[in-house]
Structure formats: structure tokens, C-alpha cells
Design goal:
By secondary structure, this protein is an all-alpha fold. The chain has 16 helices and no strands. Helix 4 runs antiparallel to helix 15 and helix 7 packs across helix 14.
């Protein structure tokens, strides 16, 4: 405790926000794997499983728009704690007897979980902007990369946890245990998290949920296609392919995807070193998106020429994950840098609305394309989405050697 007390208030709040985000992410990853594997085990088709996540992703779109506005009005501490409370309710809904787990019931629980996840993420990412001075962009880049990367590493642990819990204690016992754990975190957060963090000086009107920043709008469009490109083959098609086509059991699927997400998170955290310690700009985003577009195309080509599917998909997924991780980390830094400081959650919320919309489109396409045309079709669609991301990124701001500090503008960038 004495070590924690010796830290600066900013660092203590950063650690609290990160720990809060970690706990939430662990259960979110576990729940996703539990739902995919449990309902596949019950005989649901890939498209039906994708529909279970429809409200999860749809309400993420709505939540980020409204949540950013709400955070600017009532404070980010309240939106983060609200997210934790809703996750407890969503998990509790899934503890009912199996006969009650109809598609509408599970979709409703997933809807609450989607609202909870995006309130928590928007709050965490927005809060980082307020803890770092405007002239310390290198530090901001490192803190955002660490938060994002560590979160995704824990999401990978959550994937493994979900597969392990399903095998050990079953679906109902797993979600009940996670609900209790999140309730404990929520109570602690109510007590320790700083009050009124992120409140805008001037109460924003509801029409302000749409960003007025050209840079934020362009980055949001790029983000939409970037995350659609991942989820179009990762969310439903890949786990079902590994289980159905390659004959992997729950432990193998959960363990492999967990290892992938953990490695992905580690690379995200290391992005500042992988990009030579330079703060990114639009040119960086374009270059890394172009490199990423090649990887799903190579995997699809390998499947077309009937290379061994197991090694082809596994090796390709590792390469895709490494390059995607850097892309995601660059984007996460850029939105926090672009966002205006007063009412930061408005810009961040709008950006993550685009992120959620991309995930929604990718999730639906993942189930439909895999069911109708197979994994290769998902991969070619992914390559096309990433190419679109690269083209959009051409319009993002570049570094300038002119004055780097302007009031209420983003340091290091010009439009």
C-alpha cells in the first residue's frame, strides 16, 4: 500500500482505470468463447451463432454515440461504473436454466453486455487523455498502447478461460462465477475511482454526439473497415472452422485463440518500439494497413491451391495478428491524440461507434459468408476491407514542423 500511496495521483488513477478495464475484459473474452462453443455444441448453425452477437454489436454502435455524450455530461467515472453494473446483470441473465436460453433471451443478455463493454472501453480510453499533458505525446502513445495491449492480452486469457470453464464447470456455473467477480470489482470502483473525471465545462447538447473534426471522421471511417476486416473471419468462421473442419476440441480452440489474442496484445503494447518510438501520423496508418491487406489474401490463396489447411490458417493467423496489432495500436493512439480535451469522450465515443459498426458488419458477414461460401470467402472480404482502410488513411493528417501546440487542437498534426 505504501508503494501505491507514493505514486502520483495521475498514475494511481491510470492503474485503477486499467485494472478496472482488465477485469471487465477478462469476463468479456470468456463470455464470447462460452457463447460460441456452447451454442455450437447445442447444434446452432454458424449464422445462428452470429445472430446471438447481433444486439451485442448493434448496441455497441448506439452506446458509443450516446455514451460519449453521457460521459461528457456526468463524468467518466459514472459511465465506467454503469458499464460494470450492466455486465453483472447480463451475466446473471445467462445463469437461468438451459431451457430458458432461447435466442431472444441470449440476444437480450448480449445486448446488455455490449452496452456494458462499450461504456467501459469508452470511459477508459477517454480518461487517459485527461491524465497526460498535451505536450507529452510520446507518453500518451505509450500509455494508450499499454492499456490497449494489456487489455487484449487479457481478452486472450478470457478466451482460454471460457473454453476451460465450459469443459470444467459448464456454461451456467461459468457465468455465475464471473458475475460475482465483476460485482466485487464494481463495488471497489464505486469507492476508489475519481469523481467527475471527464465532465465537459460546457454541457454538450445531444446533437454534439456527431464529431465536427475532419481528422476524427476520417479515422473513424478507417477504423470501421479495419475491424470489419478482422471480425469477418475471426468471430464465427474461424472458431467453427477449427472445430468442424480441423476437428479441434474445446480446449484446443480456446487455447489457440487465447494464445493468439495474448500475443496480439503483447505486440500492441510494444507498438511504440516497433514503430521506432516515433509518434504515428496518417502516413504510418496507411503503410501499416497496406501491409496488413496482404496477409488474408495469402491465406486464401493457400487454401485455393489446397495447401494443408491447418498449418496454412495457423501460420497466416499469426502473421495477421502481428500486423493487425500494430494497426490497432496506431489507431488507438491517433483517436486519443485527435480528440479535443474538453468533452474528450464525445470524439472518442463517435470513433468507437464506428469501431462497433465495423464489428457488427464483420460479425454478421462472418456467419453468413462462412455458411454459404466457406472460410476463403471470409478471407478475401477481409483483404478488401483492409485495402479500403489503407485508401481512407491517405486523407489522415501528417506530421508538421510548424507550431505543435495550439489551444484545443491536436499537437503534432494539421488537417
Amino acid at each position: 500500500m505504501s508503494v501505491i500511496a507514493s505514486l502520483s495521483p495521475q498514475v494511481r488513477q491510470y492503474l485503477l482505470i486499467t485494472g478496472n478495464y482488465w477485469a471487465f475484459t477478462l469476463t468479456d473474452g470468456a463470455l464470447r468463447m462460452l457463447v460460441v462453443l456452447h451454442f455450437h455444441q447445442l447444434g446452432y448453425a454458424p449464422l445462428d451463432i452470429a445472430l446471438l452477437f447481433l444486439f451485442y454489436e448493434f448496441f455497441g454502435v448506439v452506446t458509443n454515440l450516446i455514451g460519449g455524450w453521457l460521459g461528457a455530461r456526468i463524468g467518466l467515472n459514472r459511465t465506467m461504473n454503469l458499464g460494470l453494473a450492466l455486465q453483472v446483470i447480463a451475466l446473471a441473465m445467462l445463469t437461468v436454466p438451459s431451457s430458458w436460453l432461447s435466442i431472444p433471451w441470449v440476444m437480450s443478455a448480449q445486448a446488455l453486455s455490449g452496452v456494458a463493454k462499450d461504456l467501459n472501453k469508452m470511459s477508459a480510453k477517454s480518461a487517459i487523455k485527461l491524465l497526460v499533458p498535451a505536450n507529452a505525446q510520446g507518453k500518451l502513445y505509450k500509455w494508450v498502447a499499454l492499456l490497449t495491449g494489456s487489455k487484449n492480452a487479457l481478452k486472450g486469457v478470457g478466451f482460454f478461460l471460457g473454453g476451460a470453464l465450459l469443459a470444467l464447470v459448464g456454461f451456467r456455473g461459468s457465468v455465475a462465477g464471473m458475475a460475482i467477480a465483476i460485482m466485487v470489482i464494481w463495488i471497489a470502483s464505486l469507492y476508489w475511482l475519481k469523481q467527475d473525471m471527464g465532465k465537459a465545462k460546457n454541457k454538450p447538447k445531444f446533437k454534439d454526439i456527431f464529431s465536427q473534426s475532419r481528422a476524427v471522421n476520417i479515422l473513424s471511417a478507417a477504423r470501421l473497415f479495419l475491424f470489419a476486416s478482422r471480425d469477418v473471419w475471426f468471430v464465427v468462421a474461424l472458431p467453427v472452422f477449427l472445430s468442424e473442419q480441423l476437428g479441434w476440441d474445446f480446449w484446443s480452440v480456446g487455447g489457440f485463440l487465447a494464445a493468439w489474442i495474448i500475443g496480439y496484445g503483447v505486440i500492441q503494447s510494444a507498438a511504440p518500439r516497433l514503430t521506432a518510438g516515433k509518434t504515428p501520423d496518417g502516413a504510418s496508418a496507411t503503410v501499416w494497413a497496406t501491409a496488413l491487406a496482404v496477409t488474408p489474401a495469402i491465406i486464401a490463396t493457400g487454401l485455393y491451391f489446397q495447401l494443408p489447411p491447418g498449418p496454412t490458417v495457423v501460420a497466416g493467423l499469426l502473421a495477421f495478428g502481428a500486423v493487425f496489432a500494430v494497426n490497432s495500436s496506431l489507431h488507438s493512439y491517433l483517436i486519443v491524440s485527435y480528440a479535443k480535451e474538453d468533452g474528450v469522450s464525445l470524439d472518442v465515443g463517435f470513433y468507437y461507434m464506428a469501431n462497433a459498426l465495423g464489428r457488427l458488419c464483420g460479425t454478421l458477414l462472418s456467419g453468413w459468408l462462412f455458411q454459404t461460401a466457406g472460410l476463403a470467402a471470409c478471407l478475401w472480404t477481409s483483404a478488401g476491407f483492409i485495402a479500403t482502410t489503407a485508401v481512407i488513411s491517405l486523407w489522415l493528417p501528417r506530421h508538421t514542423d510548424k507550431s505543435r501546440t495550439q489551444k484545443n487542437e491536436q499537437p503534432f498534426y494539421i488537417d
